[in-house]
Amino acid sequence: MTAILHIDASARKERSISRTLGETFKHQWLTEKPADRFIYRDIGSTPPDFISESWIAAVFTPEEKRTDEQNLLLALSDVLIEELSEADVIVISTPMYNYGMPASLKAWIDQIVRINKTFTFDLNRGDFPLEPTLSGKFLVLITSCGEFGFEENGARETMNHLGPHLRTLSKYLGADEIHEINVEYQEFGDKRHKRSIESAYKSIPELIKRITKKLASPESPV
């Protein structure tokens, strides 16, 4: 049985393109693989706490020396990391806000990219002392944006701080393979937007087949 962690980051509950696409992905996945398990977290509606000075101090305190208060500060982080660890596939459905990720998604990332949990730090490795502890996962990014041209060599390539940021962080999520489904032109609301939505929906079944086939393969990274 495959475990899929689905993170919804849109602040909108209604008329959210990324939410609707994420729900469609889940429905079509379960149609193909009804025995699989989805772990769902709606951080758009219930954002994780931002990390604080006290949180950082707790992280860097040896586990056996932490106070009850410090353990309480890290309780949510522990749960989020456990959810991530269990997942074979991570689905992040999120809009682009101000050319980057929503604050709730950044808060989730900050809660789980944590020393001695999702990465280790060793200066004996030279200039690259950080090493992820998780691996073998598939990451699916389902994104929506108001403008267009954020792809490589696109008109707004240098303004895209959502996809590239998540790709940079993906290794700390344990992702060895990344797929993106993008909807553009939302603010224009024209035929290009309609075509972009249609293309996104059409890509979902094929992507699910590709991932499930790889998961079933003996050579799968998972």
From TrEMBL:
Coiled coil: none annotated. It catalyses: 2 a quinone + NADH + H(+) = 2 a 1,4-benzosemiquinone + NAD(+); N,N-dimethyl-1,4-phenylenediamine + anthranilate + 2 NAD(+) = 2-(4-dimethylaminophenyl)diazenylbenzoate + 2 NADH + 2 H(+). FMN binds at S10, S16, I17, S18. It comes from the Bacteria. Its cofactor is FMN. Its EC number is 1.6.5.-, 1.7.1.17. It holds the Pfam family Flavodoxin_2. Keywords: Flavoprotein, FMN, NAD, Oxidoreductase. Residues 4-203 form the Flavodoxin-like fold domain. HAMAP family: Azoreductase_type1. Belongs to the azoreductase type 1 family. Also exhibits azoreductase activity. Catalyzes the reductive cleavage of the azo bond in aromatic azo compounds to the corresponding amines. Homodimer. PANTHER family: FMN-DEPENDENT NADH-AZOREDUCTASE 1 (PTHR43741), FMN-DEPENDENT NADH:QUINONE OXIDOREDUCTASE (PTHR43741:SF2). This is FMN dependent NADH:quinone oxidoreductase. It comes from Amphritea pacifica. The gene is azoR.
